[in-house]
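#struct-help
A.M.: can someone run this one for me? Single chain, 480 residues.
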Amino acid sequence: MNLFVKKPIGQIIAASEGGEYTLNRSLGPWSLISLGIGAIIGAGLFSLTGMAAAENAGPAVVLAFVVAAIGCAFAGMCYSELAAMIPVAGSAYTYTYATMGELIAWIIGWDLVLEYAVASSVVAVSWSNYVASFLSDFGIHLDPRFVACSFDKVTMPDGSVVNGIINIPAMIIIVLISLLLMIGIKESSTVNSIIVVIKLAVVLTFVAVGFQYIKPENYVPFIPENTGKFGEFGISGIMRAAAIIFFAYIGFDTVSTAAQETRNPHKDVPMGILGSLALCTILYIAFAIVLTGMVKYTGLGGAAPVATAINMLPDQYHWLQIMIKMGIVAGFTSVILVMLLGQSRIFYSMSRDGLLPKLFSDIHPTWRTPWRSNLLFMFFVSFFAGFFPISKLGHMTSIGTLLAFVIVCAGVMVLRYTQPLLPRPYRAPCFPLFPFLGIIVCLAMMTSLDAETWARLIIWLAVGLIIYFTYSRFHSKLNK
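D.P.: on it. Structure tokens below:
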């Protein structure tokens, strides 16, 4: 069997347009932009900005946001080109199948399943903690033992320290969102759009209120002098801050997983990817300008820099603290929704190709969604969120997503040279420079990650290869 057999693009598109695998095409450009914003803007905006300013770039963290956005834009334009050419579910997995062959496609698909599962579990645990804090502001106190797993220590109201039992809120949010995704993509998109409006309202309120209390002297020096150590202020500090902030942008790639549920994917998917990136960049820059203007960058090193800024406002703005918590909860909710959406669509695509059992690509006759994939991940992700100290994996950065970025950028270059006459509704500009820069930037990010992150990735991929060589290669529809 040919391990590197490629799936013809025409065959990929034809298989998605009719028969038992048809998904409901109901999304437009604004729905896709909303999905992108929902995945990109999470609680990281409220914490990473202050940390990067205090430890690396000072007020020049604004420039770091620009640098990170440029790096994401290279990958985003490559995603847009492939998504417009191959408007089906599966994202990087499907693109790799068409450009580099089955084995590489399996590796990247299996890799993304892990990334989305870990991200969903970690975010669900954090969501649970913020909801408990939010409710306590209104006098509703949840039993700490049921907001933590048995591996975590919690402090009871009487001051005693005990082990947690189960993180019930984390499990509930995974179950509710999974059920919503099963019911339909249109309903899921509507809920996500409502959450995104709440999240944007919180960010814009903070910017509008904080702008009135900016102190120009806090911007001096705009680029603090380097301490003599790479990454601590100066130009190297801006670059280090950009590497940290880069991960606040990750999530736009999930827009491409919904291409098969988009009414006009050739036009709308690139608009969704690049539009969400552009809007989030503007919001991030405005947020950073206001935050570093309200508080001297040296005072933003705590775990809650936004709270530090709000505490400097007059007493009448204390309500803003509650609003920020609401925005963080909304941010986490939309991130979970989009991660679970992308995860199920990749599993659906792998199953449709025969690399996984057929039941995972079965479409519900009424809802027109791959409901069994959603059901599997509902149990899998909620179990880990409820019973494991998954929050300890929060330091596991998106190495799999960066690997996907590298392969997608390389896939654009491969297709341009091997099939130059294929119709391309959207073309990544400045070829081959932009795809090449996308590869370089993402590889640089990957090499900066710790050894434990690489070890976890290698172990997971090894498990995936065992499955591929014992099951998938013998059931591959293309190889048959």
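A.M.: thanks! The mean pLDDT is 82.
D.P.: also worth noting: The chain has one domain: 9-475.
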